[in-house]
Write a structure and sequence with these properties.
By secondary structure, the chain is an alpha+beta fold. It has helices at 13-24, 42-52, 130-146, 172-177, 229-247, 252-257, 298-314, 358-371, 386-391, 416-434; strands at 64-69, 75-81, 89-96, 115-117, 120-122, 153-159, 188-192, 200-203, 205-214, 218-219, 264-271, 279-280, 283-292, 329-330, 335-336, 338-343, 351-352, 377-378, 395-399, 413-415. It has a 6-stranded mixed sheet with strand order 1-2-6-3-7-19. Strands 11-13-9-16 form a 4-stranded antiparallel sheet, covered by helices on one side. α1 (13-24) runs antiparallel to α2 and α3 (130-146) crosses α10 (416-434). It starts with 12 loop residues before the first helix and ends with a helix.
Length: 435
């Protein structure tokens, strides 16, 4: 088969649907939410291997398959279809074998069984990300069966532990550390794990924070003898936010990349120790996140926020308060309110894809040819692992064929027609890079 024969390949429902059904049938054991739920990705990986191993070098086929395991039962799979020219590579990476949690009581159908209703494929992992695993598996299977003569080596990497970044040494971080992906630096790396069939060219970093305020608990009928921790936390946060937006305004590159919003800092959770309605609380905590566009460094942002807090505490009596008796210092008692900031240990960095890359141009041309239009987008959601690949020298481009509206949602589904188009986009990318 010549390279031009790639244009005749189509997603095979006879391979794609049974494989996806088998993997979703394992989903109860693929949920990633430690320490309660530790996925066993090999339960999905074994079905991928059952499709591809008959085409492996060991069985007389062209595919080189490497099942790489760092934690028992949690393997990664690297599959290579060899090209004729050394150093010319295109890779499809990021389709992962774990899923987010699903509570069957909250769903309208069984999340752990694939159900097919016309074009709609329903079940946990259809959009994120077992549908992509099945898609790329069928691509590699058809390459192995039809054996087109290609200049480029085509590599697929199916990974473990994408849905949790607190546990390291299991998935792609370990593969990169061990040099198993080094050869992928010489060509574009397509991260196949987003949605809506369009190139995703930018994502945000994320910092999770907790702001704790301490004051003085007292009877609400004597507010002048209290330091209201609720008010202190709110007023302190407002001052922090005001300074944040002054120091990290909308960046000029955000418009070029099509970000809908600039970097943001906002509260999402509130807690306090409890007490009667007639008690002014002496402690409370507000939690939230910072979403940082990729044109700012998350470590610089965190350092600045710490500086804000230190300065506010040094001048707590200057912090704007509420009403004639609301204050954050009790001089006669030598008591000063304070705020404290802490961050989650892991901070993710945003991604801005290289818009001058041959891989990006190929993705855009292939998308336009198959889907009918190309509309690259950016979002301030976060995709773990990708920035680290960029920093290691990989040319990462991002695309996916699930539905953003059902990403991590209950009643998750995707459309078979979208994955059929996705298959054609991937084969078109290979043809365009072949030249």
């Amino acid at each position: 088969m010549t390279m031009t024969g790639l244009q005749d390949l189509q997603l095979s429902e006879d391979c794609f649907l049974p494989l996806l059904s088998k993997m979703i049938g394992e989903c109860k054991y693929l949920q990633n939410n430690p320490p309660q739920l530790i996925p066993a990705e090999d339960r999905a990986g074994k079905h991928v291997l059952s499709v591809l191993r008959p085409l492996s070098l060991e069985e007389g086929g062209p595919l080189r398959i490497n099942h790489v395991t760092y934690v028992q039962g949690r393997g990664n799979i690297i599959v290579e279809y060899p090209g004729t020219e050394s150093g010319r590579i295109v890779s499809f990476v990021g389709s992962h074998l774990d899923v987010v949690t699903a509570n069957p009581e909250d769903w309208d159908f069984d999340p752990f069984t694939l159900s097919v209703k016309d074009d709609k494929l329903q079940g946990r992992g259809t959009t994120d990300c077992l549908g992509h695993v099945a898609l790329v598996t069928d691509l590699m299977r058809q390459l192995g069966e039809t054996k087109p003569v290609l200049k480029h080596t085509v590599v697929a990497v199916f990974i473990a532990n994408e849905e949790n970044s607190s546990v390291l040494g299991v998935g792609i971080d370990a593969l990169v550390k061990d040099g198993l992906l080094d050869k992928l630096r010489t060509g574009p790396l397509f991260w196949i794990d987003t949605a809506d069939k369009q190139p995703c060219i930018g994502t945000a970093g994320m910092i999770v924070w907790k702001l704790r305020a301490t004051g003085k608990l007292f009877h609400s009928g004597l507010p002048h003898k209290a330091i209201n921790a609720l008010e202190l936390c709110m007023d302190g946060l407002k001052e922090i936010q005001d300074r944040f937006y002054r120091d990290f305004p909308a960046h000029p590159e955000e418009a070029r990349y099509g970000f809908a919003t600039p970097s943001t800092m906002k509260p999402t959770q509130w807690s306090y120790p409890g007490g009667g309605v007639n008690q002014i609380p002496g402690e409370c905590t507000i939690s939230g996140d910072v979403r940082v566009t990729p044109f700012y460094d998350v470590k610089d942002v965190a350092k600045k926020i710490e500086e804000y807090v230190d300065d506010i505490n040094s001048h707590i009596e200057m912090l704007e308060s509420r009403g004639p008796v609301s204050k954050y210092v009790l001089p006669d008692e030598g008591i000063r309110g304070r705020i404290f900031i802490e961050f989650d240990e892991i901070m993710t960095s945003g991604v801005a894809c290289n818009l001058d890359s041959p891989g990006f141009h190929a993705l855009c041309k292939a998308t336009e040819a198959v889907v009918g239009s190309v509309k690259p987008y950016s979002l301030t959601g976060s995709l773990p692992l990708i920035r680290e690949l960029q920093d290691e020298g990989f040319d990462v481009q991002i695309v996916g064929y699930g539905l953003m509206a059902t990403y991590h949602a209950k009643n998750e589904y995707c459309l078979l027609s979208d994955f059929k188009q996705g298959f054609k986009v991937l084969t078109n990318i290979i043809m365009l890079l072949e030249g």
